[in-house]
Fold each of these.
Amino acid sequence: MYPHQPRLADHLKQAHAHSWQRIANAGECFTGVERVAIVRTAREALTCELCDTRKQALSPRAVTGSHEHSGTLDTVVVDMIHRIRTDPGRLTRAWFDEVTQHITKQAYVEIVSVVASSVIIDTMHNALGLGLPVLPHPADGRPSREFNQAAVEAGAWVPILAADTTMADTGLPQVPNIVRALGLVPSALELFFSTFRPHYALKDIDMSISQGQAEFVAARVSALNECFY
C-alpha cells in the first residue's frame, strides 16, 4: 500500500498531455483516428489470448489464430502491433520483410513510434497504480507524407538517419542508434523522444534518485525486457 496517493509530477503531466496531443494528430502515414486506434490495439494486446499463447511457445510461428481487438485497422497492422507490444525480442528480419510487403517502411517506423510512446505513458501510470489514462480524441487532418529523403541504407531493417560515429562523454555514440532508426520519419522520432526524455537521461538526471540508481533501474528493466542493446 502507498502511504500517500501517488501522483505524477507536473512536468510529466505536461509531457504526457503533449504526447497524447501529438498522437491524436495525423502523422506522416496515418490519420489521428488510426493513430489512436494503434494505441488502443497495443493496450488490447496485453489481454490477447493468442499473444499469451504465442509468448509461451518455443517459436512464435508455431502458433496461429486471430487477435482479440476492436477497431478497423488492417489485420497485418494489428498483428504487428500485438507482436511489438508483447513479444518484441523475437521479431525477425523475415517477419519484417513479410510485414513490409503490406505496409511501407515509413508506416512501420510510425507504428513503432506510436506504440513505444504510448507504452512509456501507460507503464508509468500502471506503476503508480493510477490506471490507464483516457485516450485522446483524434484530430482532423490528413497524413503529410513528409519523410527524410536523406535517410541512408546502412544494413538496418529500414533506411536510417545519416550520422557520424562521434562518441559522447557518456561513452555512447553522440547520435544513438534508436535516433538513427527512427530517423526515416522525423515526426516519429520527435514523438518518441519528446515522450521519452522527461523520464530518463544519461546524465544530469532531474530526479530524486541518483544517476547511478537511475542507471541500475534502467539496466534491470532492459534486462527483464530482453532489450537488444
Amino acid sequence: MRYSQLYENAATDVAVFYGGRFQPMHVAHYKVYMDLVNKFGSDNVFIATMLAKNADPHDNPFSFDEKRYIMTSMFNIPENKIINTQPYRPDIKQIGKSPENTALILVYSKKDAGRLSYSSNVKPYQDNIELAPSTEVAYVYVAEEKDDGRSATDFRNAMRVDINPQEKQKIFKEFFGNFSKEIYNFILDKLNDSTVK
C-alpha cells in the first residue's frame, strides 16, 4: 500500500531538510548535501540549523550567521539554502513552500535516525512512493555516512591547542577539503586562538 493512500491528499512538492548543529560544517557534510541535491534537486534541498538558547558556547561556538558564513565561503552553498530553523521540525514556510501540499523529508545520519521512534506522523522515506503533505506526516531519509572519522569536536579542539601553525593548517584543509586563509583566521579568532598573518 502506498503511504499516500492513508491520507487524503498527495503532496505536489517536496522539501528536504538536512539538519544538524554544523559546528562547523565539514567536507563530509558537504558531500551528503550534494548527494541530496543530486537526488532531490537543488530547489528542494535545504540545511536546517540553529543555535539553541541554552547551547554551551564551548561546544557551540558559532552562531547561525557564522555557520552560514562558513558554509557559503567554504562550500559555495547559497545563503537561501541555509535556514535558521529547528532541524527536527523545520518551518517549511521559511522557504516559501506551502505545508499543505509539500512533503517534508528530514535527513539524518544512521546514528541519529536510530534514535528516532517512528509513528503515524513520522515514517521512513522510500523511493517511488507518493508522499503525503507535511501537515500529515514527515519522512526520514537516512543519509550515507561520509565522515571518514571527521569530528567537529576534534577539529575545534585541534584549532584551540598550541601546535605548529603548519599542522593546524593541514588539519583545517583535511576538515574542509581546501584552505581559505580568511576562514582559517576567522575560526582561530572565534575559538580565541591567534591568527595567521
Amino acid sequence: MVNKEFNPSISHPLFFIRKGLYTNILKFAPNFKGKLLDFGCGAKPYKDLFVNVEEYIGVDYNSEGHSHQDEAIDFYYDGEVLPFEDNSFDSIFTSEVFEHVFRLHQILKELNRVLKKNGQILITCPFVWEEHEVPNDYARYSQFALKDLITKAGFEIVTFKKSGNTLQAIHQLFIVYINDYWLHNVIFFSRFNFFKKVIRQIVVPMLNIIFYFSQKALPSNDKLYLNNILLIKKCN
C-alpha cells in the first residue's frame, strides 16, 4: 500500500501535485515486469504499485540536500556512474529526481547503458515547483527540453503527459505558501499551536475542497502545469 503522504486525501497540503503523480504512476506501473531499477528511490514510496515486477532495486545519491535516514536504498552511486553492468534491467522508474541531477544528459546515457534493449523508463519530474532539497535543486524542464535530452540519449518517447493545469499549479503553490510560510514566519500563527492546527486541519482542507469543485467552472489551459510524465523506450 502506498503511504498516505504519496496518495493523499484532499485535506493534505500537497494533494493536487501528489494525487496527480500517484494517478499517473498507477496507470503505467502494472505494465512493468522483470527486474526494475528505481533511480533516486529514496523511501521507494510507489514500490507497491509495480505489482508485476520480479525484482525491485533502488539506487540513490547521498547528497547534503536530502537525508536518507530510514530509507530503503539498496545501492548508492557517485553521481556519475551507476554501479551496475550493461543491460542489467528490464525497466527503470524515476520520480521527481531529474531536477536534482546537474548533468542530466550524462545520467540519461548511464540509464541507457544499464537498461536492456527495448526496455522502458517511466519518468516524472516537475515543471512548476518551489526550490527544495537545496542546494541540490538544479533545473525545471519543459517538455521540449526533456524530449531533446531523451532522444539524444538513445531513447524513443512512447507517451508524454502533463500532470495538472494552470489553475491547479497556481492553487497548489498558494497552499504550499500558506502551509510552509505562514506557519513558520507569520508570528500570529507560528507562536500558537492552536492557530497552526486551524490552518492545517481547517483552512487548507477547506480551500482544497472549494477549489476542487469550482475549478471545473473556470477557464484554464495546460501551458502552466505541475509535472511531466514520460514513458520512454531504449532504441539502441
